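Our consortium's second objective concerns turning raw sequence data into structural hypotheses that experimental partners can test. To show how far this objective has progressed, the report includes one record in full. It was chosen at random from the queue rather than selected for favorable results. The single chain below, 180 residues long, was entered without modification.
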Amino acid sequence: MQIETSRLRLRRFLPRDVPDFAAYRSDREIARYQNWDFPLPLASARRLVGEYSRRDPTRPGWFPYAIELKQDERLIGDIAVNRHPGGVKAELGFSIARTRQGQGYASEAVSGVLTALFAQGVQMAVAECDERNTRSARLLERLGFTFARQHSFFEREKQVHITISEFTLTTERWATLGPR
């Protein structure tokens, strides 16, 4: 399943994405708010891209979309959707390469995915972000998400306490917000 927005193509990962994927996933500024191995060697990136390309976007579980900028057909990030069993709830997570941040691409990608999910019968979208990631929290709020709760845990590998903010958005609220 592919999703098109005015500037972006959200699609399956392809082998040509490996170098760009490894680059932004190895950027310390991007990785600090994420729960993935850092840095990401090319061999690991190749394995993940292969694994992601075989997943089914219509089944329960995580499906990562590659975010491609239409103008140059380059990977600029990813947005993952975790469809819950029953199909009425989905969780979102997103990352954009640092050089492509601040240009509205994350908002456009999230909006495109939400439009598709709600059209397919999803009733609630959930997104979480590290409380220190204020830019992502503001993006979610601009798109209509509301703060739901926080939970904390101790990350042993990083030796730090992390607080996660959870945001929710219902299909009813999305419908009242008008065109995006």
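The partners drew two points from this record. Strands lie at 3-4, 8-11, 61-69, 74-83, 89-96, 124-130, 146-155, 160-170. Residues 105-119 form the longest helix (15 residues). Both points have been shared with the crystallography group to help prioritize constructs.
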